[in-house]
Design a protein that fits this description.
single chain; twelve-stranded antiparallel β-sheet; 12 strands
Amino acid sequence: MSDITEDLLKHLTLERLEENLYRGNSRDIGSPNVYGGQVLGQALFAASQTVEGRAAHSLHAYFLRPGDKKAPVVYEVDRIRDGRSYTTRRVVAIQRGKPIFNMSASFKIEEEGIEHQSEMPEVPAPEELLNMTELGRQALADIPDKLERFLQWQRPVELRPVQPSHPLHPEPAPPIRDIWIRTVDALPDDPAMHKAIWAYTSDYSLLGTALLPHGLSFAHGQVRAASLDHAMWFHRDFRMDEWLLYSMESPSMAHGRGFSRGNLFTREGKLVASVAQEGMIRKL
């Protein structure tokens, strides 16, 4: 296992301070504030540590304040309910005595039932595509140092966009984005950790999908944006160390808010998770 994967696992595992109280460190990935996926993944992992014999099936979260990359985050878990089939947890993320994020997560027993699902879009295989680091190298000639650091960051999760766009000079395009994702190394057989890593990854590119029809990107310096909320549903088991297609769309942008949603498919076409997010987006 590479150092970046070991660091990701350590990053999401958290330190137990006492019962229902955990602490996680922050990482600087080149974004202005704490990366939202970090808080999502850490909060979901914290909640999962208070549940036995049940798997997370959904979460609903709000981002309240920007997080400071230089400070740790404390997670307080409230054991709201333990029912016969479902368990509910509430998590508040705190920095310097103030909440920056809160989340409700639901866990349930395993059961069988009737099934149906949406179809996976037809896209090229991941082997036919370049990853974000390789695409970043092609654009390095005319991008600012801060963006260069972000594009060249060695990600623990490999991202291979199906419809790549230039970070500084994007052309207007339909609000649709597909990205193949997979961790760069094999992971332990811990379903809770795989879900935490998916939560960590899900925040990447989702809000930016709302900018595609307008020929804008966050790298322009012409847009101010922040995640407002994030919801996620887990439909079936999956592994983050196997190729998954993250298929996103943005149905609406209005009143300074962009709305995006996405589905996560296995390579075989099985729908394993869905996500939705609204964010503040203002053109400067």
